Amino acid sequence: MANESVDKKSAFYIDEPPINADIESFFAKYASVPPSALREHLTTVRDRAWQRHTHQCLGCWRFLFPSVKLSPIYSEIVAKCIDDGATVIDFGCCLGQDIRQLVYDGVPVERIRGYELDPFFIEQGYELFRDQEIMQGKKVFAPGNILDDQLLNEIKPADYVYVGSFIHLFDVKSQPDICRRLTRIAKRAIAGRQAGAVVPGEHPRTWDSLGGKLMRHSPESFTQMWSEATNGEWQVESATLQTTNNGNDSHKGLIFVVRKRGDQ
C-alpha cells in the first residue's frame, strides 16, 4: 500500500497475512471463509482498520493470534464458563479476536461481553468474523471507556475480566486508577497481556496520534503496583515476561493473572 499512514508506520506494517493451517481452519469453521478467499478477506478488513488507527497489533497481524490463549488460566476460564455458568468480559477488545476464540472453544456466547472505545473496531470485527447477526442479537459488544464512571456503574461484573494490550496504554500515574477501575467489573480474576520490560519505565507512544506515554512493567513493578493500588485486596498470581522479538527489551510481553484475595 502506498498511503501516507502505511509509509509513515512501515516498521509496524506487514503486507502479507501470516496464514497457517490453524488460521485457515479457524476462519473456515467459525467464519465460513474458505482458504482460497482468506488472504483477500483478511487484508481487506485489516487495511480498513489500519486507516483508522495505526496500531501495532493491526500492522503486524497480531489480532490473528488471540492472546487470551496464552493466559495460564485460560483453561480455567473456559471450564468455569462452560460448566459453572461463569462470565467473562474482554475490556479493550479491539476487533474481538479473543472473544471469538472463547466462543470457538465452547464458551456460550451469552456468557461473554466485550467493550471497545472505538465502535469502528466492533463493526470491523463483525466483518472479519462474519458473525454480526448473532453477536448483535446477544448484545455481546458495546462501546466503552474505562474512564467513564457511569458505564462502570452500569456494567454487571463478570467472574473474569480479560485485558489484552490495554493497561500499558496508560502512563505511570494513571495505571493504578485503571487497575482499581477494572476491579469494579471483576469478581474473581483479571488476566491479560501487555508490553513489559526487564527494567520498568515509561516510553513515548510513537505509533499513533494520541501521544503521551505508556508504562512498561517488570513482573516486580507490576506486582507492587497492584498491591498498592488495591490495598492488597487483589494480588498478582503470576506475571511472566516473554521475549517477542530477538531479545530486544522493548519487545517483551508481560503475561499476568491478578486474583481477588480469597478467591479459589
TrEMBL record:
<dbReference type="InterPro" id="IPR029063">
    <property type="entry name" value="SAM-dependent_MTases_sf"/>
</dbReference>
<keyword id="KW-0808">Transferase</keyword>
<keyword id="KW-0949">S-adenosyl-L-methionine</keyword>
<dbReference type="InterPro" id="IPR051654">
    <property type="entry name" value="Meroterpenoid_MTases"/>
</dbReference>
<comment type="pathway">
    <text>Secondary metabolite biosynthesis.</text>
</comment>
<protein>
    <recommendedName>
        <fullName>Methyltransferase domain-containing protein</fullName>
    </recommendedName>
</protein>
<comment type="similarity">
    <text>Belongs to the class I-like SAM-binding methyltransferase superfamily.</text>
</comment>
<dbReference type="GO" id="GO:0016740">
    <property type="term" value="F:transferase activity"/>
</dbReference>
